[in-house]
Amino acid sequence: MDTMTEQKQRVLSFVQSSGTPTLGNYLGAFRNWRGMAAENDCIFGVADLHALTVRNTPADLRRRSVELYAWLLALGLDPEKNVIFMQSHVPAHAQLAWVLNCYTAFGEASRMTQFKDKSKQHADNVNVGLFTYPILMAADILLYQADKVPVGDDQKQHLELARDIAVRFNGLYGDVFKVPEPYIGKKGSRITSLTDPEKKMSKSDPNERSFVLLTDDNDRIAKKIKSAVTDSEALVRYDPANKPGVANLMTIYSCCTGKDFDAIEQEFAGHGYGDFKAAVAEAAIAEIEPLRAEYQRIVSDKATLEQCAKNGAEKAAALAFKTLRKVMKKVGFWQV
Ligand code: AQP
């Protein structure tokens, strides 16, 4: 591909279209992606196949996927310089996932803790897709011969599985897949739920007070942050073990303002949580407001969005097909 140079590393990032992106997605991942894209050859995908592992209204899934694609553009990621595409537009993902299913032991897939957690969360719909989700993720990564994959804590085990599958496959058939490494970029903070600060802030959380969405208007952002769970000590101090709610708000404030925790403790010494939360809300709004305006401009231009998605799918499919063809040949499929 003409934009890819030999020196740059290929980095692959996916985001699941399971809801509207949150402040957690933004501070933990999205805002680092622009810098990452400047230094690497980046492929960004909206993982809509993965979103099918929970029940969706078809129209909702479609809308969320288009919106998430628009968010990637709103972040300032350049669709000419990067590959930005929708996972379901490239059939090679599902094709390679089937092959990899046959090279993954049932026991190793059963050890994935996210499957155990999600099965509890969606006890009424524990489908096989939820179980094989990490194998599809391995296909996403291995198809593009990615050097690096940025992963949050909850995805580390899945990346390890992708590496194990790649090593196993290469052991049988020669060097087919690049074995990916985790991407350690600028620190991505883990933002927790506003209502239950022991849990990650998640866009699919049924409690809408638990997250700030990037589409929330300023009043809503302020209300949600002002009602965030803290504690009764009325002291702004960074102590995640004993004061997880305050630590989370301090993390948000630190990410948005660049101030470190010592400086934040000093700034709010002698103040109650009311002043502190107002400042956190103001800082979050300053970060989100311009992005939201850009997103609204982009999402209303359907023709450009469609054209970008088509171009992205073409570029992604060309890369993916090279790997898929090699795999098909190696495992013994008749190629005509
Ligand atoms: N709370 C968070 N704090 C920091 N980083 C986060 N990410 C997600 N939530 C937080 C990071 O965002 C990127 C894209 O994530 P994703 O949507 O593909 O997957 P996820 O981690 O499963 O995000 P959600 O919001 O929790 O989705 P659901 O609710 O569907 O499970 C990843 O880099 C992720 O680490």
Average pLDDT confidence is: 94
Low-pLDDT runs: 1-5
Structural class: mainly alpha
Question: Order of strands across the biggest sheet?
Answer: 1-2-3
Q: What Rg, in angstroms, do the CA atoms define?
A: 21 Å
- From the 3D structure, determine the CATH topology of the largest domain: Rossmann fold
Q: What is the count of distinct domains?
A: 2
Order of helices and strands: EHEHHEHHHHEHEHHHHH
Q: Mind telling me the CATH class of the largest domain?
A: Alpha Beta
Distance between the termini: 25 Å
Tell me the CATH superfamily of the largest domain.
HUPs
Strand content: 5-15%
Tally of helical runs: 13
Name the overall outline.
Answer: globular
CATH architecture of the largest domain: 3-Layer(aba) Sandwich
Number of beta strands: 5
Helical amount among residues, as a percent range?
A: 40-55%
User: Which ligands, by name, code or SMILES, are bound?
Assistant: adenosine-5'-tetraphosphate
Largest sheet: 3 strands, parallel
